[in-house]
Amino acid sequence: MRHLMSIGCDESRALMFLYGFCAISFVAQTPRLARQSHLTGQDISALMGGTLLATLLFLPLIFYGLAAITQLVRCCLRRPGTGFGARLSLFWSLLATTPILLLHGLVAGFLGAGSALNIVSVVWFGFFLWFWFETFRVSGELSS
Asked: Is 78 left (phi over 0), alpha (psi -120 to 50) or beta?
């Protein structure tokens, strides 16, 4: 994060990180969608189309909103930091945890719902929160 912040404020880089996460997130969901299609008889094209729309159109908007909320909280607490730092820390944390997200997709596709999927979900969320809090803290330190 220190290196990313030292390069300078480049919004296109942050957006690339976010769309990289969204694309990998879509790929990670394809085994689950294939399983769902097979078990329920639904058309896989419709499932994938809806998922693609959600991950590449709506998910970035949600994450931009989340980054704005975290920056507002940081401002209310009178902590140093910029909006770019808040966005970059969130987007980089999402992208950095995609290997676990890919594992999550494989478990969802091959094993389905159950304790294994719950464990992988908790592991991904824990790593994501740890990355996010640390990068958010570093982005605030570097902007002061």
From this structure: left
CA dist list (Å): 108 to 31, 97, 113, 117, 142: 7, 17, 6, 6, 39
Cα–Cα distance, 64 to 3 (Å, whole number):
22
To the nearest 5 percent, what fractions of the chain are helix, strand and coil?
85, 0, 15
CB of 41 closer than 8 Å to CB of 51: no
What residues contact 20, with CB distance under 8 A and at least 6 apart? 95, 98
Q: What is the pLDDT of residues 60-100, one digit of tens each?
A: 999 999 999 999 998 888 887 787 888 989 999 999 999 99
**Token pair belonging to 45:** 């094209």
DSSP one-letter code for 41: -
Contacts of 142 (CB under 8 A, 6+ apart): 2, 5, 6, 85
pTM score above 0.70: yes
